[in-house]
Each structure stands twice: as structure tokens, then as C-alpha cells.
Amino acid sequence: MSGTAFVTIHWRGQPVRIEHAWLRAQDSAAPLVVFLHEGLGSVSMWKDFPQRFCEELGVRGLVFSRPGYGRSTPRAADERWAPDFMHRQADEVLPALFDALEIDTPWLFGHSDGGSIALLYAARHAVAGAMVLAPHLFVEALSVTSIEGAKQAYLTTDLKQRLARYHDDPDSAFWGWNGIWLDPAFRSWNIEAEVARIEAPLLAVQGLDDEYGTLEQIRTIQRLRPGTQLLELPACGHSPHRDQPVAVIAAAQAFIRTNHTTRGPR
After folding, report:
1. 134: Cβ–Cβ under 8 A, 6 or more apart, which residues?
2. Which domain holds residue 39?
């Protein structure tokens, strides 16, 4: 994705450079959607989906790389993420970034770990609504097995070289994510209590062939928040925005139209 910029936030007592890109920024009256990437994602790994999404929905967008990813400040080689790493992204990084970029009450669009972070943020902060794709509320055996497979692929195939197209430091991105997900201390991680507190409207999407989680993830969201809209997609894996972009965009468009109010986010 071209046109990326950088903003510095202060996190854990250190300056952290955040790579980001604005989409359709000229339409200042349009709703703003913030895109939150997956556990191995970045600004560039979204490819053209956010631009297509914003053009078709007539909204503005913000895409950014979390610390440790893309062109943002990488994770130190000796830094190990703790089981609360997604809570810290939602409670510390996002508020600092939104303050630096003067963002208030956005729509959130999160994929995988980014979906979990979106839910955690929405549990404690005002949002217009949240759209989450293949989010995690708890750790499943299927997830651990697939992440173990990703570790073996990183060690034995060209996965590291392929990730280097999207990250300045692929080891920072991969081992930060892989290390904590495979840490036995992470097996008890669970955000159901936080999700139950969300008051904003929710759209939850998952593929029937998701190799990193079962439909129980999004169905749990609906049990906790009965007004949640679900979209369960056939012929779709862990990345609905790649496998079924037309269906995802159509559902998001209907969701925003239904829940948009005259008080637009800035």
C-alpha cells in the first residue's frame, strides 16, 4: 500500500514509531473505519482490501501496523509478549494512537488477533460499531495445532522470506505472535467477560473452513451480546476478506447503514 506515513507514540516509557495510511481522507464528513490486522499482518499485508472497502462504502479508512509489525518499531529480540498482549494493545497502544491522530469514536474492522483487540477496545471505549473477522475469545486446540504448523513452516520453508515483503523485521512479527500463542500460560486466555460488556453494535464473521478457530468463537459473541449480527461463510478459511471479499463488504455496508447515526466519528 502506497502513501504510508509515521507517527510517534509513547508506550511503556519508550517512543514507538507507528506506520499508518489514510484512505479517502479528503471526505472529512464520512464515517471513519480503523482496520486492525491479524497476528502476522501489517499495512501492506491488507493489500487493496481496505481501499476497495472504503471506496464501495463511501467511508474513510485508517490502516496501521502495530508495534513489532510492518514498518513500525520492531519488537526487541529479547522481548517476550505476555498473555495480556492483546489487552495492552487495546488499552494502551490504541488510545495513544487515536490521541496522536485525533480520532474519536471510530468504526473498527478487525481480523483475527486484530478482531480480538477491537472487541477489547470496544469493551472499554466508545466506538460507533465493531466488525470482527475470525476473532479469538478463547484458545482452542485447533488454533494451537495450526500455529504449531506455522512455526514449522517458518523454520523449514521460505515463509520468513515471504513475510519479509510485509515486515522490516519478519522475526519480530513472527516470533512475537507465535511465541505467546504457543506459551502454555496463554492456554487459559479468555475475553468473554470483556465482550459481555460491549454496548456498541457488532458484526462477527467467520469462515466454515477456518483453520485457526471454530464457529464457537463468533457464536459465543452472539450469546454474550444477543444483538450481534453473524455471517458464517462457506468456502472460506481464516481470512474472509480475502476468500469472500464481496460477501464481507456487502455485510459491512448493511451493518454500517443500519447502525450509523447523525453523530459522525472524526
Report:
1. 111, 112, 115, 205, 206, 207, 210, 212, 213, 217, 238, 239, 240
2. 5-259
